[in-house]
Amino acid sequence: MRWSPFLGIPLVIALISFLFFKIFPLSSLIGSPPPLQPRLFSAEELSFYNGSDPHLPIYLAIVGSVFDVTKGKSHYGAGGGYNHFAGRDASRAFVSGNFTGDGLTDSLQGLSSPEVKSVVDWRDFYFKTYIYVGKLDGRYYDSKGNPTKYLKGVEAKAARGAQLLEKQKDEEAKVPSCNSRWSQDEGSEVWCDDGYPRLVQRPIEIALTGKMSKRCACYKEDELEQAGLEVYEGCDFFAKKCRI
User: Fold this and answer.
1) CA distance 51 to 70
2) What is the chain's pLDDT, residue by residue, as a tens digit (244 residues)?
3) Partners of 201 in the beta sheet?
């Protein structure tokens, strides 16, 4: 029986094919599936993605932008510590800490400009960390997916908050803050390495939060007669360290 040289051809082809697909897997040739196109959700549609159905992804909205947070389902899924955010837009709760009833709302009415900035910063965090899947029809986007006047107002207020915070930072940098520490045995104390500790009103605080607060700052001896400086109760006028 004579051997035909053509009998080896199928074996050679099979070997070449095996090596080719070993080096270049089929998945790399086909490529990854295209990402989902962002879409417009109604509040009712979004509510289905609250983590209660294991066959559906988990979505949340913040400032009207919807994100897929399924990769964090241990937090956002049923029983998770952040599940109250899933399936809804609870923008206000990101700064209020009220996770029940009326607190789980997308309204930012009455919040200060730095608080609104904080909410917008949270939205930016989700853009960087999770998958953006669309917009929520309602307060921030209309039925065509266009930004509403409310959203533009929120973003303008957030920008104002950023400016005020930067201004306060610059103002407070002119007078260094006190050092501070707390221990269970000795309580709280403040001190200055250079100067004397004084309580002073934050000049921009009312514009920032609508409230007044004070901070501990270090003033040199020739600055202590300025109006508005307050010596800590029980602390000597020239003491560099005070227990409070």
Assistant:
1) 8
2) 555 554 555 555 555 555 554 555 544 444 445 556 899 999 999 999 999 999 999 999 999 999 999 999 999 999 999 999 999 999 999 999 999 889 999 999 999 888 999 999 999 999 999 999 999 999 999 999 999 999 999 999 999 989 888 887 887 788 889 999 988 888 899 999 999 999 988 765 544 555 667 889 999 999 999 888 999 998 999 999 998 8
3) 214
Interacting residues of 96 by C-beta distance below 8 A, sequence separation 6+: 103, 111
32 burial type by CB count under 10 A (0-12 exposed, 13-18 middle, 19+ buried): exposed
- Is 197 in a helix, a strand, or coil? strand
> 199 near 244, Cβ under 8 Å?
no
